[in-house]
């Protein structure tokens, strides 16, 4: 009986700690992965699908308006990816300010909207604008959009960084088949 009283308490035994090591490790790994996922969260999923669906029709009208006005643009991005020169042609109000949007494919925090500065006199056949912005984050591709500040028209395209620093922005080709575009 004296030997049984000398037995070690459970917390000094090897087996309870061996059995608890697995669950403890899983809990610690789960907590650390939660913080890693929270820090590198992407904005790929929309919170309000209904609201986004209502805006699709509005956006299509802007594309159709650019098509009707024959608006085309070419964006030349500097090698440092912190400035651009934009050449715009078509029937648009040259007194209306223009915005260039650089949209990261996965991180909304890296998106930029840049107000363009006109560098050619008004009334020219092709307007030239300049833009200075924060250097772009690392990405394989970007979505580039040019629009008037009033939100009447827009032209956009996907820019693959590996294919050079020139991007042509035109209304979507799918508008060629719509009845509104035939008018």
Explain this structure to me?
This protein is of the alpha+beta class and 183 residues long. It has a domain at 71-172: Immunoglobulin-like (Sandwich), CATH 2.60.40.10. The chain contains four helices and nine strands, in the order αααβββββββββα. The strands form two sheets. It has a five-stranded antiparallel beta sheet, with no helix packed on it. The model has no long low-confidence stretch (mean pLDDT 84). It holds the Pfam family FixH. Keywords: Membrane, Transmembrane, Transmembrane helix. InterPro entries: FixH (IPR008620). The chain crosses the membrane at residues 14-36.
CATH topology of one domain: Immunoglobulin-like
CATH-defined superfamily of one domain: Immunoglobulins
Strand order of the largest sheet: 5-6-2-1-9
E-strand count: 9
- Pick out the low-confidence regions: none
Query: What sequence of helices (H) and strands (E) makes up the elements?
Result: HHHEEEEEEEEEH
**C-alpha geometry:** elongated
Rg measurement, Å:
28 Å
Keywords: Membrane, Transmembrane, Transmembrane helix
InterPro entries: FixH (IPR008620)
Pfam family, one: FixH
Highlighted features:
FixH; transmembrane helix; 183 residues; five-stranded antiparallel sheet; four-stranded antiparallel sheet; alpha+beta; Immunoglobulin-like; 4 helices
